[in-house]
Design a protein that fits this description.
By secondary structure, the chain is an alpha/beta fold. The chain has one domain: Alpha-Beta Barrel (TIM Barrel), CATH 3.20.20. It has 14 helices and 15 strands. Strands 3-10-11-12-13-14-15 form a seven-stranded parallel beta sheet. Strands 6-7-8-9 form a four-stranded antiparallel beta sheet, with no helix packed on it. A two-stranded antiparallel ribbon has the order 1-2. Helix 8 runs parallel beside helix 9.
């Protein structure tokens, strides 16, 4: 029986049979495509009209338009937060130009200040918050508001604003629009980062030191942010929960060679705050808990499952120990894998089209065995990936679909 995109994703989330392979193209901020690569892909496909919108300033991601999403088989659309990067709202847009000269739309509140050396700086309330060095594709966050905090009292003096009534109205309107105008599954991008929140708030090096040397201070910080997260989640799920199939949380716990912290430290300092959020979502909605977590995280996966994670992304198969067969064998009964379909660190940048097709096909066959899989490459498609390689990835997935239809 032919399924709608929404039905297909729901079945995959429940590890039930699907009519064909579920696919995600750009339905989340780590399953997407750089704006320059997107513009080239759109031109290569001969798709005219529409406007290229850079909705994620931090990662320079394009918002996939319906003709492009459908051409690549995408079954998922994203319900964005109002300000997905650097606090810049995406409710209003203005004309701009990409680095390759292509026209685009960017958030109206994006007003970088060009320096004499060509760098672009972003300021908020007179404070430098992000910088984009000349010749680079991305803005880097440079402001760490808790960097000078030494005591719990210091932490308490810095406000942590929650979700606003305006954002809730924005989310309600957009969620209804996506539900009524598409048959795609809706992924609600929430966040709820714990480890990453500390790294960004204090600065990476200082926070990693504090985890070991000042765990009580870290716990105080975590208690504060999770109190805000839970209040936000309550309002968020009340507003849009019934329309979501997925709630996406995030926390990069891995490096290329292993977890950033020990299993013991994860259990003591991070897991309790993951658990309280993930269980709240599962108790107050029908949406699946999706965790975006990069890197080599194999030792942490059992604890993540215990904390309430149901969907794992990006499945970084290029990191140490993240063997696709082992992941599927050990955790396929408990997790839906969302990603892992193309190696964006090695094969895609350096391989031939035939090598990309062969690897993508192999990975699909591994992860899609017995269901519980949504196809996507490992993390975002970067600016230097030509459209021919993007199509090698996605046309392989679409060819797999056609074979499934033929069998059935």
């Amino acid at each position: 029986m032919k399924m709608t995109s929404r039905e297909r994703i729901v079945a995959a989330l429940r590890r039930q049979p699907t009519d064909v392979l579920p696919i995600d193209f750009g339905g989340m901020r780590s399953t997407g495509i750089n704006a320059i690569a997107y513009g080239r892909l759109k031109r290569r496909l001969g798709i005219e009209g529409g406007r290229l919108r850079v909705y994620d300033v931090f990662q320079q991601l394009a918002e996939p338009e319906e003709p492009v999403r459908k051409r690549l088989g995408g079954d998922v659309v994203q319900l964005h937060r109002l300000a997905p990067s650097f606090g810049i709202p995406i409710d209003q847009w203005k004309d701009d130009t990409l680095a390759d000269g292509a026209p685009c739309l960017v958030p109206a509140g994006l007003n970088p200040v060009r320096q004499d050396n060509g760098d672009l700086n972003l300021y908020r309330d007179g404070v430098l918050i992000a910088a984009r060095p000349a010749g680079y594709d991305y803005y880097n966050p440079v402001h760490h508001p808790f960097a000078q905090c030494e005591t719990p009292a210091d932490l308490d003096r810095i406000p942590l604003p929650g979700i606003s009534p305006y954002e809730l109205d924005f989310l309600r309107t957009r969620a209804r629009e996506l539900t009524e105008t598409t048959d795609a599954a809706i992924l609600g991008s929430f966040g709820g980062n714990i480890l990453e929140a500390g790294q960004l708030s204090f600065g990476y090096e200082r926070f990693m030191y504090l985890l070991a040397a000042e765990p009580a201070l870290c716990r105080h910080f975590f208690e504060r942010i999770v109190a805000v997260y839970l209040d936000d989640l309550r309002q968020y799920l009340d507003a849009v929960g019934p329309l979501l199939q997925v709630v996406q949380m995030g926390d990069d716990l891995g490096s290329q060679t292993g977890p950033q912290i020990s299993t013991a430290m994860y259990r003591e300092l991070i897991k309790p705050y993951h658990q309280v959020q993930y269980r709240f979502i599962r108790e107050h909605s029908q949406a699946a808990v999706f965790l975006h977590c990069c890197g080599s995280i194999m030792p942490l996966i059992p604890d993540l499952i215990d904390a309430g994670v149901q969907v794992m992304n990006p499945v970084q198969i290029s990191a140490r120990g993240m063997d696709p067969k082992k992941l599927k064998q050990e955790f396929g009964r408990d997790l839906v894998f969302w990603g892992g379909g193309a190696n964006m660190q090695a094969t895609v940048p350096r391989g031939t089209l035939d090598q990309i097709r062969a690897e993508t096909r192999e990975l699909i066959e591994i992860f899609n065995q017995d269901g519980g899989y949504v196809f996507n490459q490992v993390h975002n498609i970067q600016a230097n990936v030509p459209p021919e390689k993007v199509l090698a990835i996605y046309d392989t997935a679409l060819a797999f679909r056609e074979e499934q239809r033929g069998i059935r």
